[in-house]
């Protein structure tokens, strides 16, 4: 994946991301990344939350970009 063409970036906060793109909640839930819709704490960035869960941030960004295109 070409990161420079990403619509989103890994350092966006979960709160900001869900606010801008509510359609991504399903993917975040599938990846085990908590968000406010999931009734779990949502502090931190997309990268921080992915790393805490041992997820590949580039794969997640690719899925999320496909969702919001």
Give the secondary structure arrangement, pairings included.
Layout: H1 14-20, H2 25-30, H3 46-52, H4 57-68
- CATH topology description: SP0561-like
Shape: globular
Spans of at least 5 consecutive residues with low confidence: 1-5
Q: Considering DSSP H and I runs of 4 or more, what fraction of the residues is helical?
A: 40-55%
Biggest β-sheet: count, sense, barrel? none
Strand content: under 5%
What is the H-and-E element order? HHHH
> What's the average pLDDT?
81
- Reading off the top of the CATH hierarchy, the class is best stated as Mainly Alpha
The CATH homologous superfamily: SP0561-like
CATH architecture: Orthogonal Bundle
Structurally, how many domains make up the residues?
Answer: 1
Structure description:
By secondary structure, the chain is mainly alpha-helical. The chain contains four helices and no strands. The radius of gyration is 11 Å and the shape is globular.
Concise overview:
This protein is mainly alpha-helical and 69 residues long. The protein contains 4 helices and no strands. It starts with 13 loop residues before the first helix and ends with a helix.
Q: Which tags fit this structure?
A:
single chain; SP0561-like; globular; mainly alpha; 69 residues
């Amino acid at each position: 994946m070409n990161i420079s063409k990403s619509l989103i970036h890994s350092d966006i906060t979960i709160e900001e991301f869900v606010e801008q793109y509510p359609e991504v909640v399903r993917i975040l839930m599938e990846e085990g990344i908590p968000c406010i819709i999931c009734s779990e704490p949502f502090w931190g960035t997309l990268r921080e939350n992915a790393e805490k869960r041992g997820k590949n941030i580039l794969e997640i960004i690719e899925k999320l970009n496909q969702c919001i295109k």
